[in-house]
Amino acid sequence: MLSWTGEGSFELNGTSFRTLPPVDLLEEHPMDLGEREFFVFKPVEEVESYIALVRALEPQRILELGVFGGGSTMLLAEIARPRRIAAIDLTPLAEVEEKVARAVAASDLDPATISLHGGSTSPTQRRWSGSALPSSGASRSTSSSMTLPTSTCRRWPPSTRCSRDCARAAST
User: Fold this and answer.
1) Statement: residue 77 has pLDDT above 80
2) Number of domains observed in the structure of the chain
3) Residues of the domain holding 106
């Protein structure tokens, strides 16, 4: 059950989340997150719509591209209760893996549900992260999420059909 605990903060099944604060507030007061507290890059006004969308879709397998601090991964795990989430990032995720593992252990989530895959500092990883790739003028984001591409959708709040259309467009 979603419970708002303060301005921009909510709790879901015992895990705490903070939403995207105004940029000026973030610059003045950097976020210090607790042990079972995760940051999600979603404005307050989008959180409930996002949760409703995930619940409507009932995904059983989720692929998340871009992990950052594990907030969206934990949020998706708590909302959808899928069989499997594979979350991939170009950067090493040792600290994120430890924090997510501790949060999962303190919850009723199955530890086998979440699988985090971080990059390394190997030459192969550096090549694919862009340092050895020729510049093509196209921009790439290492923290985009293809799980639910509602940010590319022009309809808000998104409908199930809208998200499927966006996902189809993103996969072509």
Assistant:
1) yes
2) 1
3) 2-127+140-171
